[in-house]
Specification:
Length: about 160
């Protein structure tokens, strides 16, 4: 989580295991593409920086954030991955839709982590406005995609 005391892209590279023999699935929501594509870019670059081969990074797109649950579940069942990463962005609007989607995705991914053999990394930005999402997808607070890649490597090694 980004705060004024924690930049999403800051980490100790020496504390990250070698990822050269790891394979990752990434499920990305197409909704808010300026944000989700930036998250994906950060995630892929960070995985590669720590040794993951390009051919061992498998990316699937889903229409929106709620569909991330299904996509992650399918990757867990069929992929042979060391970890699965979900990337999405929900920006609060004028209706309670934001609350339902954020809660549903959170519960769905938590459930997958409880029942799956591999970790599912939660990379859903839940922001109050577009600027906050930009700040967390490569802006002044770093890139949540970087953080998710590091989490995936560490959890795959767990």
């Amino acid at each position: 989580m980004a705060t004024e005391l924690h930049h999403l892209s800051d980490y100790d590279p020496n504390a990250v295991p070698d990822a050269s023999n790891m394979c990752f699935g990434i499920v990305v929501a197409e909704w808010n593409p300026e944000i989700t594509n930036a998250l994906l870019d950060g995630c892929v670059k960070t995985l590669e920086k720590h040794g993951t081969l390009t051919e061992n990074i498998h990316i699937k797109k889903v229409p929106g954030s709620f569909e991330l649950i299904y996509g992650a579940h399918q990757m867990c069942l069929n992929g042979g991955y060391d970890a699965v990463i979900i990337l999405g962005s929900v920006i609060k609007g004028e209706t309670p839709h934001f609350d339902y989607i954020c809660q549903g995705v959170t519960y769905g991914i938590a459930h997958l982590n409880a029942i799956s053999e591999i970790p599912v990394i939660y990379g859903l930005l839940t922001t109050l406005d577009f600027q906050q999402a930009k700040d967390r997808s490569g802006g002044k607070l770093g890139n949540k995609g970087d953080e998710c890649a590091i989490d995936a490597i560490k959890m795959a090694k767990f």
